[in-house]
């Protein structure tokens, strides 16, 4: 019998909360009896997944006239609300309590796709909202049998497209996944809006003569993972962004296997 389930596992990731903390979060979340994500039939409408990169303001007109669904990640959610755009979905996976700040102000029209190892404070803030629970792969935590487990990379941006596939979307557009900062702006919203806003060491990167782009190590890792996603999704995933990721996608990529052959031949 053919297996018609979508293959979701692609990357292993290292979590910011240790295994004991993730297991504790799961043990506190599961008794809430929240509905689990299910595979849905394919749909024709496009999906915009909006991250918090500084390029987002340049795409607001597109998003206001978007013909399909819109999901927001972390701080992009409140930013879009402030711009008069109500996202159809919110996607969250950070197991730290800081994720709860992103959902302190919400709209009842939004569905909240929340990772099962997220801090209970997130669910407390969403007590009267529509929540769909999902399990992340590669976290060293055992989940109840027979439930979907979502693969992907080390950030929410690299996991959300896999959940989107499970929800039937085949035309997925990632907005604001710049993976770098621009003119001193770290996010589409004002830096420091949330306690969990990044203060990591800044790096200066050039790509194929473009830049330098101001970024950080976790975002550089995200760029490499998004490139792999773009390849694996085979035309189902496009990027609407600027910064480091846009430059990386424009740059020629050397085939490492060919390089090794040429090097050996020399």
SSE order, one letter for each helix or strand: HEHEHEEHEEHEEEHEHH
**What are the low-pLDDT stretches, counting only 5+ consecutive residues below 50?**
1-14, 258-266
N-end to C-end Cα span: 50 Å
- The total count of strands amounts to 10
Structural class: alpha/beta
Radius of gyration: 19 Å
Which shape, going by the Cα principal axes?
Answer: globular
Please tally the helical runs, counting DSSP H or I stretches of 4 or more residues: 8
Strand share of the residues? 15-25%
Can you give the helix content as a percent range? 25-40%
Taking the sheet with the most strands, its summary is: 8 strands, parallel
Query: In which order are the strands of the major sheet placed?
Result: 6-5-4-3-2-1-7-10
CATH class, please?
A: Alpha Beta
What's the domain count?
Answer: 1
Average pLDDT across residues?
88
Enter the CATH topology name. Answer: sialyltransferase cstii, chain A
Q: What can you tell me about this protein's structure?
A:
- The protein has 266 residues and is α/β, with parallel strands linked by helices.
- The chain has a single domain, classed as sialyltransferase cstii, chain A (Alpha-Beta Complex).
- It has helices spanning 19-29, 60-64, 76-82, 120-125, 156-166, 217-232, 243-250, 256-265, and strands spanning 47-50, 69-73, 89-92, 111-115, 130-136, 149-150, 172-175, 203-207, 210-215, 237-240.
- Strand 1 (47-50), helix 2 and strand 2 form a beta-alpha-beta unit.
């Amino acid at each position: 019998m053919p297996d018609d389930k979508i293959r979701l596992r692609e990357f292993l990731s290292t979590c910011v909360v240790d295994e004991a903390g993730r297991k504790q979060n799961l043990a506190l979340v599961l008794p809430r009896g929240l509905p689990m994500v299910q595979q849905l039939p394919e749909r024709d409408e496009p999906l915009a997944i909006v991250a918090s990169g500084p390029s987002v303001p340049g795409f607001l007109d597109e998003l206001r006239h978007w013909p399909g669904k819109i999901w927001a990640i972390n701080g992009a959610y409140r930013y879009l609300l402030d711009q008069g755009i109500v996202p159809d979905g919110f996607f969250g996976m950070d197991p730290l309590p800081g994720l709860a700040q992103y959902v302190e102000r919400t709209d009842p029209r939004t569905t909240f796709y929340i990772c099962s190892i997220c801090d209970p404070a997130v669910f407390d803030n969403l007590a009267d909202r529509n929540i769909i629970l999902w399990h992340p792969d590669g976290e060293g935590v055992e989940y109840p049998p027979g439930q979907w487990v979502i693969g992907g990379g080390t950030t929410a941006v690299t996991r959300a497209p896999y959940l989107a596939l499970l929800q039937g979307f085949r035309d997925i557009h990632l907005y604001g996944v710049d993976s770098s900062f621009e003119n001193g702006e770290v996010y589409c919203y004002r830096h420091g809006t949330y306690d969990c806003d990044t203060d990591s060491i800044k790096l200066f990167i050039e790509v194929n003569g473009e830049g330098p782009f101001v970024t950080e190590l976790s975002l550089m890792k995200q760029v490499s993972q998004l490139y792999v996603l773009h390849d694996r999704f085979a035309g189902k995933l496009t990027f609407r962004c600027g910064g480091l990721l846009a430059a990386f996608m424009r740059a020629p990529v050397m085939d490492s296997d060919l390089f090794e052959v040429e090097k050996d031949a020399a």
